[in-house]
Write a structure and sequence with these properties.
The chain is of the alpha/beta class and 524 residues long. The chain has twelve helices and 18 strands. Helix content is 29%, strand content 21%. Helix 6 crosses helix 9, helix 9 packs antiparallel against helix 10 and helix 11 runs parallel beside helix 12.
Length: 524
């Protein structure tokens, strides 16, 4: 049985639009851009600034340890020097449920919150940040409980096994309700206003940012810290940042109804059955272990990581098997990105571009590199960038279309660089920052080079499309096993040609002790 369900893309889009009252007549009347954010910062035009990056953080105090809190403590000395924090998604595990925000977000990041000296008094839907925390939703922020988990009797065998296990899965009672908890925590939840008058007064008070296209939401650290939408853009220090919701363009193509397609379906169905059996066996075995015994506690941590990994693979397989539904994609958001990138390249004061979203197009973490979602995200982002490149032409002057792409989803820290891919995503730097609290993963055994098979069945060639320069994840065996949780500080320097100095910060759990260190910075 599944522990999570992933709502349909059309439902995610519809619900999120309702929550921000997308294109409400009062919003249109005021010429408000609901995808633009303006940071209320006197030094927003400084060419040199720093920011932090975390991702896949939303875990609690599993087995007495709290990796997310250790990573938060790593960032505290940098708090005053950094202008904002980007979060690459999966704010709350396992199903984005509202009751876990206190334990899995507010408590770990209490120093970043107004009123953080009394974190237990902060409601998840009333958070105000001292330092801007600018997230994108991850898949777990959208996940819900399957009906069988939320409705059936607790006497059923799979649920009894789960309750008897020692895996501490943070299942949650409510689920995300199609991302509603995330929306109430971070978005400007305009749906809550009962009358047109209330909404009009709110818009006039907080949508005061002036842009070339009209008005936008003004983000005021310490006072009003809401986001206008699930995807948005902001400009800082001449760098355009584009935040995307990749959960609505990660739907892989359905298997064809050909003989080959049916064969692939049988293989996937068999793999899914095997994974379900393996998952339930792990859960059953975990009930026999004692978390107070150090060696058995270590086994429980491995089991927890394996179960969550299996669950994600099952969700990916289910997306491929869903032939009763047409493939869905968020064309509106992808078209928005295309037009915003073209606009950015035609704006003289913009000197660089950063995109951040959850699902990485390029990654060598073992559980993600061949997922159908990884491949379809790569394809759809390439399509957007190809369209942008065709329009802007010689404006690029040999530069990559985007300076930096930041992702999460893969539970590691990784720096990759694309080679000549034959598309407009060539020669771009990609940083995966998804090791900030939840169970870490290993790098694939195939190594650092990503090879793509191109061409038709009759004539195929293999091409090197990307290379991993750094991978920080679970490694070692037995007593030498290391769990290096991570975050990033990125310093932006330079003038017309910006440089990004990346400083990885590590809190490593090894031999039942924490060790903090910083890896050698590298320049992008």
């Amino acid at each position: 049985m599944k522990f999570v369900s992933d709502p349909a893309i059309a439902k995610k889009i519809r619900k999120m639009k309702q929550r921000v009252r997308w294109q409400d007549p009062l919003i249109v009347e005021r010429n408000i851009d609901q995808t633009r954010l303006m940071l209320d910062e006197d030094r927003a035009n400084d060419s040199e600034f720093s920011f932090l990056v975390v991702g896949d953080s939303g875990s609690g105090k599993h087995r007495g340890q709290n990796p997310q809190r250790r990573v938060a403590e790593l960032m505290l000395p940098h708090h005053s020097e950094c202008k904002f924090m980007l979060h690459t998604g999966d704010v709350i595990y396992l199903v984005g449920s509202r009751e876990y925000y206190q334990q899995n977000f507010i408590q770990p990041y209490r120093e970043f919150l107004v009123g953080g000296e009394h974190p237990q008094q902060i409601a998840y839907d009333e958070m105000v940040f001292k330092l801007p925390i600018l997230p994108v939703p991850g898949n777990h922020d959208y996940y819900d409980l399957p009906i069988v988990l939320s409705l059936v009797s607790l006497t059923t065998l799979p649920i009894r096994r789960l309750l008897q296990s020692r895996l501490d899965m943070d299942i949650g009672l409510y689920g995300s309700r199609v991302g509603d908890a995330y929306a109430q925590a971070f978005l400007d939840y305009l749906k809550a206003f009962q009358s047109p008058g209330e909404l009009a007064r709110h818009l006039d008070k907080y949508y005061t940012g002036k842009t070339e296209t009209g008005r936008c939401l003004s983000y005021q650290p310490g006072h009003f810290t809401r986001l206008p939408n699930r995807y948005y853009t902001f400009r800082y220090g001449g760098i355009d940042f584009f935040a995307l919701d990749s959960n609505t363009f990660n739907d892989p193509p359905r298997l064809p109804t050909t003989k080959a397609g049916e064969a692939d379906r049988k293989i996937l169905e068999k793999r899914r059955q095997d994974l379900e059996r393996e998952k339930m066996q792990i859960i059953e075995n975990s009930a026999k272990l004692n978390p107070d015994n150090p060696s058995e506690d270590d086994q429980l941590d491995d089991m927890h990581a394996k179960v969550s990994q299996i669950e994600e693979i099952i969700v990916d397989i289910d997306k491929q098997l869903a032939n009763n539904q047409p493939t869905q994609t968020d064309s509106e958001q992808l078209n928005w990105l295309k037009h915003k990138l073209i606009e950015s390249w035609n704006t003289a004061e913009v000197r660089g571009r950063v995109i951040f979203f959850h699902h990485p197009p390029y990654v060598t973490e073992a559980s993600k590199w061949q997922q159908a979602q990884t491949l379809v995200i790569r394809s759809r982002l390439r399509g957007v960038l190809n369209a942008v490149a065709e329009v802007i032409g010689s404006l690029r002057q040999g530069c990559p279309l985007v300076d930096l792409v930041l992702n999460g989803h893969a539970h590691c820290l990784e720096h990759l660089e694309t080679m000549d891919t034959g598309a407009a995503d060539s020669h771009i730097h990609w940083l995966v920052c998804g090791g900030s609290g939840y169970s870490l993963r290993r790098q694939r055994t195939e190594g650092a080079d990503l090879i793509e098979t191109l061409g038709n069945v009759g004539k195929q060639e293999k091409k090197l499309v990307a290379r991993s320069h750094l991978f920080v994840g679970r490694n070692g065996q037995g007593s030498q096993k290391r769990r290096p949780y991570s975050c990033l500080r990125i310093d932006v320097t330079g003038d017309r040609q910006p440089q990004f100095i990346v400083r990885p910060l590590i809190a490593e759990w090894h031999q039942r002790q924490w060790h903090n260190y910083e890896l050698k910075p590298f320049i992008i």
